[in-house]
Design goal:
Blueprint lengths: L1 E5 L2 E5 L1 H33 L15 H11 L10 H17 L18 H22 L3 H32 L4 H6 L11 H14 L24 H26 L14 H22 L5 H33 L1
Antiparallel strand pairs: 1-2
Helix pairs in contact: 1-8, 1-9, 2-8, 3-4, 3-8, 4-5, 5-7, 5-10, 7-8, 7-10, 8-9
Length: 335
Amino acid sequence: MTRVREGRRTAVIPVRVLARKILRLVVPILVGMAYVTLVERKVMASIQRRHGPNTVGVYGLLTPFADGLKLFLKETILPSSANPYLFRAAPVRTFSLALLAWAVIPISQGMVLMDRNRGVLYLLRVSSLAVYGILLAGWASNSKYAFLGALRSAAQMVSYEVSIGFLLVSVRLCAGSMNLSQVVRAQTEVWFIAPRFPAFLRFCVSALAETNRHPFDLPEAEAELVSGYNVEYSGMAFALFFLGEYINMIMMSALISLLFRGGWLSPRGRGLLPGSLWMGLKTMRFLMGFIWARAAFPRYRFDQLMRMGWKVFLPMSMGWALFTANVRRRVNGLR
């Protein structure tokens, strides 16, 4: 038996039931991640007027599974000067933390693994721990290129986590709760994207930087750092970093949908489609934004990225949180 906290109640759930719920969450995430890579390659090929994956399976639909099998069968090479334990633990840590973040993401009404009252704080904790996986990968490889890439990535993720944290504070002030299901229910009358459009734009840009996606994929930097923190990895160990990045990208898209686009709510009140389908469609829309940004924008320099994070986004996010708190206090005073 396992105790799981749901809202204000502590429910006792059998281990088999909990394992079944975890599998129902993890398997669709992994399959969806595999096909996100295929969609990304096909969409970018269309934008750049070239052929995408089209040889493995019908229209290339089996390409993600062929790539996974290839990486699984490749040899994982351990550098002679690397720390063997930390070298192997870093990709596992990155991948497992990417999956753990999904525990509090509601897919629809009541479809959530842990309906925690402090779900937003849980996400911040998990995302802050994800930095250690990348730092361990760079340090344990005992390579200057990997170590510099890890430092870049850690600095970038920490910088934009602070901005995301203040934006989450402002959303919590509007919703009156840190429970993500309650945040969605607070948008029944109007989605938060309308009154909070500047915060929505800053959150989208910060999500790109937080997940190390283009145009902020500076830790990779193949021109000067030869792929950054994962340069010494191969085979399945490299694949775990790859899986973690795409799972985080899907999670960020789902989080944007929950915080600003009403989550599983229909655009016109009570819709005919189920809430999980609306949630999936909104998540895919933001995923297409991630892909479009990769195809459309050039890469930022590292000094430009840090300047924007600390001197532009952080003051604006702090100011927006203070403004939201002041407006809420005045509204409560009028009531």
